[in-house]
Automatic annotation (TrEMBL):
CDD domains: CBS_pair_BON_assoc. It comes from the Bacteria. Keywords: CBS domain. SUPFAM superfamilies: CBS-domain pair, GlnB-like. Pfam families: CBS, DUF190. Gene3D superfamilies: 3.30.70.120, CBS-domain. This is CBS domain-containing protein.
């Protein structure tokens, strides 16, 4: 039995007479899930039943209008359930909400989802955005960004974005010696040592931010937002209303998720959104792929990882078939504290690792000595003749940042990341 994917099933038990904001509660739940682009929900009306109060509700004429139990069942990706659970809980004041794991055997949605021909940014953006004031101390900004999954935070004054602080701003203007994704891999004493110079400098958000951030209106179309990101080489955009006030953030991943859709991206729908997803992935892939072999020594792996902006390298066997992936963060984890400053310097400044160190010294201060020792063995791949929409679905299914592109024989032909996929979606209209 082939399992398409894993999902969460949410059941919400309420009464037919429950209301919120002047409308039936079950309808308010449906509207929330629909507005947040959930995969779908079903309302089931009970015939008889009782709840915690112990009163049995019967399907008599007197009882039907107000008392029958109602169940809203919703099945979606685990991360979507986690994201929307607090808002559902806020709606349901009295009732029962359960969540359990479920397997997806079949997911074949209707080819056309009920969307406007051009979807607005506000239907895709993240609404819960953490921001800082211009006077915020820089260490507080770093701590905030470490707690969040995104790599940028808007700087807001009187509700309007006046700047944005990115990973690059922290490194180049703020003097942070380690990128955020690497910083997360450090132990607490090492983290304090890195952040201490920031406290001494006394810099604020206003002194580090990129002023006049590029923003997008909440009513702008997805192609417009995608084109803006590609043209300005941005990973995310603050979203503003017609008064210029910050109302959300939209990222490349948000756009790709909307274009991919589905539990496993089984039914991509980029054309429906005004985007193009029917060209072969070979047209947008890059062929300059950093590679090493399983037996390659760690110093060589470091060099491959820092050779491109991807900050990762593919491990291929002697037939050039992908067998693993190594990231900069994984390399940093394999180095003991004694060599970690040198490893960070190598990764940040793209310098050779271990220069001046003998092989015995490297072996004593690294956990793993070859690419095979440090690689992740699950490599997301896609055939070079696959459509762009299929590649997006594959990336979303595994939550990967890159895809290895292979030929018909499974040999490595190229690589794509999120920026490449987004560029491909707008390339015909750009």
């Amino acid at each position: 039995m082939e399992i398409l994917g894993k999902a969460k099933r949410v059941r919400i038990y309420v009464n037919e007479g429950d209301r919120v904001h002047g409308k039936p509660l079950h309808l308010a739940i449906l509207e929330l899930l629909r507005a947040e682009d959930a995969q779908g929900a079903t309302v089931l009306k009970g015939l008889e039943g009782f709840g915690a109060a112990g009163r049995i509700h019967l399907s008599t004429l007197a009882d039907v209008p107000w008392q029958l139990p109602v169940v809203v069942e919703w099945i979606d990706r685990p991360e979507e359930v986690e994201r929307l659970a607090p808002r559902l809980r806020a709606l349901v004041r009295h009732g029962l909400i359960t969540v359990d794991d479920t397997d997806i055997l079949l997911f074949e949605p209707h080819p056309l989802r009920d969307l406007a021909p051009t979807v607005a940014v506000r239907e895709v953006m993240s609404r819960e955005v953490a921001s800082v004031a211009p006077s915020a101390p820089l260490p507080e900004v770093v701590e905030l960004m470490l707690r969040k999954t995104y790599r940028a935070v808007p700087v807001v004054e009187q509700g309007r974005p006046v700047g944005i602080i990115t990973n690059g701003d922290l490194v180049h203007r703020g003097g942070l010696g380690v990128r955020l994704d690497l910083l997360r891999r450090l132990e607490r004493p090492e983290l304090r040592e890195v952040l201490e110079p920031l406290s001494r400098q006394g810099l604020t958000a206003a002194e580090v931010m990129t002023s006049g951030p590029v923003t997008v209106g909440e009513l702008a179309s997805l192609p417009a937002a995608a084109e803006l990101m590609v043209r300005r080489r941005l990973k995310r955009l603050p979203v503003v209303d017609d008064r210029g006030a910050l109302v959300g953030m939209v990222s490349r991943l948000d756009l790709l998720r909307r274009a991919g859709g589905g539990f496993g991206g089984k039914e991509p729908r980029p054309r429906e959104l005004g985007l193009e997803g029917d060209q072969p992935i070979a047209r947008v892939m890059r062929r300059d792929v950093p590679t090493v072999q399983p037996e390659s020594p760690l110093a060589e792996v470091f060099q491959a990882v820092v050779s491109t902006r991807l900050n990762r390298a593919l491990v291929v066997d002697r037939d050039r078939k992908p067998v693993g992936l190594v990231t900069d963060a994984e390399l940093l984890e394999r180095v003991t504290p004694a060599l970690r400053p040198g490893a960070i310097r190598s990764l940040m400044q793209r310098l050779p690792f271990g220069r001046g160190q003998g092989e015995e010294s490297l072996a004593a201060h690294t956990r793993g000595h070859t690419a095979a020792d440090v690689m992740t063995r699950a490599v997301a791949t896609v055939r070079e003749d696959a459509l762009l929409s299929e590649a997006i679905a594959t990336m979303l299914r595994g939550q990967d940042k890159v895809l290895a592109v292979t030929d018909a024989a499974g040999r490595l032909a190229g690589i794509v990341d999120r920026a490449d996929l987004l560029h491909g979606l707008i390339s015909r209209g750009a």
